[in-house]
Amino acid sequence: MTFQKLVIGVSIAIGMSAIATVPAQAGTLTGATIGGTAASDYLVYDSNATNTFLVANTSANVQKVISGNAASPTGNVELAASSEQTGFNFTNNTTLTGTIGGKILTLSSLTSDDWFGVGKTTTTYGLTNLANTWFNQVLTSNSITSPLLAAFGYTKQTLFDSFLTNGGFQRFSDPNISYVNQDDTSGLISIGLAGHYNAAPLLGLPSNPFTSSLQASELVKYTYEGKTDYLYSFKATLSGLTEKSDGISHSGNYEVTIQGVPPAAVPEPSVMLGLLGVAGVFATQHKFKKASI
What we know:
By secondary structure, the protein is α+β, with helices and mostly antiparallel strands. The chain is built from nine helices and 14 strands. It has helices at residues 2-20, 59-65, 112-116, 130-141, 146-151, 156-165, 168-171, 200-203, 269-292; strands at residues 26-28, 30-35, 42-47, 51-55, 76-79, 95-100, 103-108, 176-183, 188-195, 220-224, 227-231, 237-238, 242-243, 252-259. Helix 1 packs antiparallel against helix 9. The longest helix has 24 residues, at 269-292. The relative contact order is 0.17.
C-alpha cells in the first residue's frame, strides 16, 4: 500500500507538472476569405528579406502572407486596393474574414458612411464624425500644433479641407493586413497594418525635420463577437521592408489590438500522457483492491 501511494503521488506530480509547464501559444487567423461589396478589389503582397511584391490573388497566397508577426510582418493583403484610383466607389467595401480561437473575425476597408455618416458623401471640418475625430487625433498624437501648421501656411481647417479634396480619406481606407494573431492565454488579438513609417506626405505635409516622424496607420473596421468598431494607430515600428515598385510603402508596421475571447484550453500530448498515467495507476489500484477481497 505504501508503494502504491508513492507511485500515485509521483504520477500526479508528473501530470500536474506537465500541465503547469504548458507554454502560452499564439493562434493565427485560419480559413481566410475575401468578401464584401467589392470582393475583387484587393491585392496580395508577398515578401522576401527586403521587399514586398505583388503575387496572384489566390486563397493560398492570402493565407500565407498574413501568417507573420510584429517581429516579422512579412507580406500583406490590401483591401479596397483601388481607393487611390480615379472613379473609386467609396460606398463599397472589401473584407477579410476568418476564424481565430474558434471565433469569426471580419476585417474591412472603410466607406464614406464610416467616415462621414450614413448617406453622407463628404464632410466639413468641425463636425462630429469619424473623419474629424481621427484627423484631430493624427495632429495631437504627432504634436502637430497650430503654430507648426502656420509655418507651412496651413490652419487645421485648411489642412483638413486639402486632405479631403485630394482623396486623403479614401487613401487611409484601404488597410494592408500583414498578420492576425491571438494570445491563447489572454485572448488578445493582434493585427498588423503595413503602412508608411513617415506618413507626413500622405497627410499633405512636407517631409522635413519637423514632420519626418509623423506616423498614422490606415484604418481597419472589424466585426467580432457582435461588436463592430474601428482600429488605427499612431505608432509604427520599422518593418524592414519596402514595396518593390515604389521603395516607400509598407516600411512601417502599426499594430492594433482587440480583446478577444481566450480559446478553450487543449492539453498538449505531454499533459495527456501525464493524466493517462494517473488514471492508469488508479485503475491498477482498483484491481488490486478487487483481487484482495
